[in-house]
């Protein structure tokens, strides 16, 4: 009977060790999964922040490009290159209209509206070679730079 008890005790100990190991592995797996889930959530939040910042930088870069092009058109009009200035400013106004949706709710929205509101007058002045177009373009450029500097 002693051998039987020892064998049963050994089998019970072996089964207990196996069950204990399985239980520990299950608990460790759940803890690891919770840690992975927390890290993934933190990564998603960081990605959302980066995407937002990238969108802001993209918007800012597009407005800066538009301002620079407006300045170049003002220089061309100031040099009385009205044909070239008209061609260039048409592209500027087209791109400004395309940016309108991107700028909704941003600080640059008002500036973009100011640029687009003077479209018809500037194009008409450039078409007839009116020097007032150069003055209007310079004013638009100066106002755009002042607005950008205050933000």
Series of H and E elements: HHHHH
Biggest sheet: strands, sense, closure?
A: none
Report mean pLDDT, rounded to a whole number: 87
- Count of DSSP strands: 0
First-last Cα distance? 91 Å
User: What spatial form do the alpha-carbon principal axes imply?
Assistant: rod-shaped
Q: Which residues form runs of ≥5 with pLDDT under 50?
A: none
Number of helices: 5
**Percentage of β-strand residues:** under 5%
How much helicity do the residues have?
over 70%
What is the CA-based Rg, rounded? 35 Å
Oligomer kind: single chain
Given helix and strand content, the structural type is: mainly alpha
Written description of the protein model:
- Helices cover 88% and strands 0% of the residues.
- It is built from five helices and no strands.
- The longest helix is centred in the N-terminal third of the chain and has 77 residues.
SSE layout and pairings?
Blueprint: H1 2-78, H2 82-99, H3 109-117, H4 119-128, H5 132-150
Helix pairs in contact: 1-2, 1-5, 2-4, 4-5
Quick description:
With 151 residues, this protein is mainly α. Helix content is 88%, strand content 0%.
Defining key terms:
single chain; 151 residues; mainly alpha; 5 helices; rod-shaped
């Amino acid at each position: 009977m002693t051998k039987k008890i020892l064998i049963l005790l050994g089998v019970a100990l072996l089964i207990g060790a196996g069950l204990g190991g399985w239980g520990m592995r299950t608990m460790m797996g759940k803890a690891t999964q919770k840690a992975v889930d927390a890290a993934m959530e933190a990564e998603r939040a960081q990605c959302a922040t980066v995407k937002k910042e990238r969108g802001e930088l993209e918007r800012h870069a597009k407005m800066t490009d538009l301002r620079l092009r407006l300045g170049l058109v003002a220089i061309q009009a100031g040099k009385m290159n009205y044909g070239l200035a008209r061609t260039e400013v048409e592209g500027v106004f087209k791109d400004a209209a395309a940016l309108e949706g991107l700028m909704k709710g941003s600080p640059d929205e008002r500036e973009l509206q100011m640029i687009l509101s003077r479209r018809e007058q500037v194009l008409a002045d450039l078409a007839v070679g009116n020097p007032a177009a150069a003055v209007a373009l310079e004013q638009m450029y100066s106002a755009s730079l002042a607005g950008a500097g205050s933000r």
